[in-house]
Write a structure and sequence with these properties.
There is one protein chain. With 650 residues, this protein is α/β, with parallel strands linked by helices. Helix content is 40%, strand content 15%. The protein contains 24 helices and 25 strands. An eight-stranded parallel barrel has the order 1-2-5-11-12-13-14-17. The chain has a six-stranded antiparallel beta sheet with strand order 18-19-20-25-22-23, covered by helices on one side. Helix 15 (342-345) links the parallel strand 12 and strand 13 (356-358). The longest helix has 26 residues, at 34-59. The radius of gyration is 25 Å and the shape is globular. The mean pLDDT is 96. The structure holds alpha-D-glucopyranose. Alpha-D-glucopyranose (GLC) binds next to loops. Alpha-D-glucopyranose binds at residues 152-153, 155, 192, 259, 295-296, 337, 401-402.
């Protein structure tokens, strides 16, 4: 017998009880915009049931649950009232076209404001540069107030409503958001909601033993519980410190710190934390942020006896945030940053949760195939791991501000005869240059002596062989590196999803070892690819004899081409059989446009035979859209070393 679900009815009842009170509180303001209020109420009624259910799952057992509901509704109305008129217009526009970000026209970029232009004010002068590149999605790395010295590259936030004074002010940020919006560029920011810095006002109050604020974090008087938890936990930054708890002398208690000791994990079992962070989220949305990158989603709920990653409540929290955003700021989208096992990554991708997700598996496997010159793991994994729910999309990247971890599935590897552990060891040796045959100049990140695990830092160009080739002053090796870079970029742009350019890669930024002389970051090799140097290379972009110019123009050319091909919008991506272990191919299609993309991961020319081509629908003569070469039907196709072709087989 199906059990009666009392929740929908109770959801309606509680809304009917609470709403009149809230309407009374805000009567003046609501009275000024009756039509708008009507629209808001429609959204509220539409989303409330699921919000109620999520909140009940999280906090229903607490005696003051009805109070939590009241406060949440109050928050919703308050932040909606504060939402600027132009953003309400944007909400309407997005509601009329909710899948806008699936378009082939959408191309993203990500940068650190301080490294790129020193501050927000100067960033404004570079909007034309973003336009020249063809970007319409711009992610600014964390720029909030943070502790001086090491602050994990901005991921230890002391105040979500204040910008780091070296970078600018909140007013400048919302102005910039408006300026970008006027140019058709959506602003993307991080929502670092797993932890705050230990200088956040909540942490400071906790340190002064204020019980309400101690309850914002996970704190323990002794090692009893931390030791029980620790048995199951992964260490994220093992070279920096041991264990996931930090002793706080002021409080005389242990604090849960998944990442660095100055990053205190928030306690979402406390409904006040949920509401306070929901308010920070809505505040950011009201500054004009269109996409929030949900940082470190995997870690937000703790459960004894588990590794405290990807717990069901983590999803419930994000869905509850999502429902609140849909009511107050319906144009806001979430992108999940789950750098975990691919089975877990996919769980965050849902219309009601995160419609965008980083694609760490594709990123890692592109580097894997570049090292092995073989595509079987990439091909096998993408065949069954690429599909995600309709209306959602991947954000594809080659490099970002973080390290590369080999997050492929062990069983996937075994199924095609690869020993996963030995393969990871090979890849680590390859990318840290320990392997004498390697072209890559990577730097190890977070070597864990207990597990032997390590991850890789380094820029796109340095990992693809350019740094080594330039050091050797070998023009053939330089050309090979350029071809590797073009190959990976081509896949990022065409495979389906939003391509995300790590700004600097458009002109071939290489490793910068100066972090080794800075004591605050010397232990964090990720700074090798967060370079402050050589940004003036942008000025070389007019000199056609430079590599920088070539990279820039190849990047722009590919972005432009993508925007002309509806088949490259989000949607079907079908991995094809190429019949050659060095080739990786896929079909992209929309309506009557069909494009077959084939990529050669070897330095040597490789052939896809006519039989396999024919099986993919190559019937007549077809054109390679990248260089307008024509391929005769019925013949084998020979790809040059590291060549990528986009064949129009419509
Ligand atoms: C995310 C960020 C990473 C940071 C961590 C802790 O994984 O990408 O740079 O160190 O969260 O906030």
């Amino acid at each position: 017998m199906v059990e009666y679900d009392w929740r929908p009815e109770q959801a309606v009842k509680s809304l009917n009880r609470i709403l009149p009170e809230v309407e009374k509180t805000f009567a003046d303001k609501i009275g000024q915009a009756p039509d708008e209020w009507h629209k808001f109420k429609n959204r509220l009624h539409r989303e409330w049931e699921r919000l109620f259910i999520y909140l009940h799952q999280l906090y229903g057992w607490q005696y003051d649950f009805f109070y939590t509901l009241q406060r949440i509704l109050n928050t919703l109305v308050r932040y909606w009232l504060e939402r600027p008129a132009e953003l309400k217009l944007l909400d309407e526009k997005r509601e009329a076209d909710p899948c806008w970000f699936l378009s082939e026209k959408v191309v993203g970029g990500v940068l650190y404001v301080d490294l790129f232009s020193d501050n927000l004010a100067k960033l404004d002068d570079h909007i034309s540069y973003f336009k020249k590149l063809g970007l319409n999605y711009l992610h600014l790395m964390p720029l909030f107030a943070v502790p001086k010295g090491d602050n994990d590259g901005g991921y230890a936030v002391s105040d979500y409503r204040a910008i780091n004074p070296d970078i600018g002010t909140m007013e400048e940020l919302s102005k910039l958001a408006a300026a970008l919006r006027d140019e058709g560029i959506s602003l993307v920011l991080d929502f670092v909601f797993n932890h705050t810095s230990d200088e956040h006002i909540w942490a400071q109050k906790a340190k002064s033993n204020h019980p309400d604020f101690m309850a914002y974090y996970h704190t323990y008087p002794d090692r009893e519980l931390p030791d029980q938890f620790q048995t199951y936990l992964r260490e994220i930054f093992p070279t920096v410190r041991k264990g996931n708890f930090t002793w706080c002398e002021e409080m005389k208690r242990w604090v849960w710190t998944t990442f660095n000791s100055f990053q205190w994990d928030l306690n979402y079992q406390n409904p006040k934390v949920f509401r306070a962070m929901a308010e920070e989220m809505l505040f950011l949305a009201n500054q004009g942020v269109e996409v929030l990158r949900l940082d470190a989603v995997a870690f937000i709920w703790k459960r004894l006896g588990t590794n405290c990653e990807n717990q069901p409540e983590a999803h419930t929290i994000i869905r509850a945030f999502n429902a609140m955003a849909k009511i107050v700021a319906p144009s806001l989208l979430f992108k999940s940053e789950a750098i975990v096992h691919p089975d877990d990554v996919i769980q965050y991708i849902h219309l009601d949760e995160c419609r965008l997700s980083y694609n760490p598996l594709l990123m890692a496997l592109l580097w894997e195939a570049l090292a092995t010159r073989e595509t079987k793991l990439l091909e096998y994994s993408m065949r069954h791991r690429y599909p995600i729910p309709a209306g959602c999309t991947w954000v594809n990247f080659i490099r970002c501000h973080d390290d590369i971890g080999w997050t492929f599935d062990d069983q996937d590897a075994r199924n095609i005869g690869i020993d996963p552990a030995a393969h990871r060891t090979f890849l680590n040796k390859f990318y840290t240059g320990e392997n004498p045959d390697s072209f890559a100049k990577g730097v190890p990140f977070q070597f864990n002596a207990n597990t032997g695990d390590v991850r890789i830092s380094g820029t796109f160009s340095s990992l693809a062989g350019l740094e080594d080739a330039i050091l050797k002053q070998d023009s053939e090796l330089i050309e090979q590196a350029v071809r590797r870079i073009n190959l990976l970029r081509s896949i990022m742009v065409s495979i389906g999803g939003i391509p995300l350019l790590y700004i600097g890669d458009e002109w071939g930024m290489m490793n910068d070892y100066s972090y080794l002389t800075d004591p605050t970051i010397v232990n964090d090799s990720r700074w090798v690819h967060r370079s402050r140097k050589r940004w003036n290379a942008r000025e070389d972009l007019t000199d056609q004899d430079t590599l920088e110019w070539r990279f820039f123009h190849e990047t722009v050319k590919l972005f432009d081409l993508r925007k002309k091909l509806p088949a490259l919008q989000n949607g079907g991506m079908e991995v094809i059989h190429t019949g050659n272990p060095h080739l990786f191919g896929y079909l992209r299609a929309f309506k009557d446009q069909k494009i077959l993309i084939i990529n050669n991961f070897s330095e040597e020319p490789q052939t896809m035979d006519a039989v396999h081509l024919n099986a993919c629908g190559v019937k007549d003569d077809v054109m390679n859209l990248i260089n307008n070469d024509v391929l005769s039907s019925g013949k084998d196709l020979v790809l040059n070393g590291h060549q990528s072709v986009w064949l129009d087989i419509s």
